[in-house]
Amino acid sequence: GHKQLIGTARRRVDMLTVAIDTRANDAIAADLRMSWLKEIHPDCGIELTDNGQRAGADIVFGGDPSPAEYARVIGAKFFEIERARETEDLSSAAILAAPLDNLQSLEPCVRAYFVKRVVLIGAESTGKTTLARHLAEHFDTLWVAEYGRENWEEKIRALTPDKPSVWWTREDFVHIAQEQQRRENEAARNANRVLICDTNAFTTGTWFERYENRRDAEVDAIGALDKADLYLIPTPDVPFVQDGVRDGEMIRDWMHCRFKERLTAGTVPFVELTGSFAERTRRAVDEVEKLLR
Fold it and tell me: Which of 223, 212, 23 is nearest to 119 (CA)?
């Protein structure tokens, strides 16, 4: 309804300013809503206001008669825009009550906010990638691969006789965290109710610690911006499979415990996956289904 109102009003004037209410009890922060509107309506001015009050308007548009008195007070004309029939059965309250059932009614940037995110983290060779693919297929949605591995394989392919070895740099980890997060946020725009992530930027900080024996404030700050609704951690009590790239067989237990420590200190729930791959898969599916109820 608001999108229709803004689009119709914009076609009728030379310049349109959209006033966004700011209230302490907003379900969604006004700054975030403003960023959405700037993306959805790039040819409009978007402003945060106190109770929608803005002086200096020549025309005030509304989807109902309620803004007419405000228009009169500031000496502006008032136009009420009738709601389109196809939006009559939709309301922001109904969408907020069941956003995952109304994703088709949302713009991509808004859809990404509501889509649930399940992240697989843990030590090497514990079945995370295989499980991520399986979950994405089971829930008919998208999954985001581990960019750090892709980055490392690119480094290996670039080796030459003049450059026979390669190593991580701090800048690599910053870049990996940023790119992992960017890909995840982009995929969330098109995911079906849930996005499956094979690691995320939050985990990059522990991989930095694994190689450098210290934390990095910038990498951790990027990870702190991650959106996650559930972490799944496969335990490292399965055989280690060497694929020519992995190098952490001897520290799998340390990695697993460190991830648990970091998650325990946070607020996002996590579940350990144990047993055979079939058992881990069943538990993972059950946990995601609980999240989507």
Answer: 223
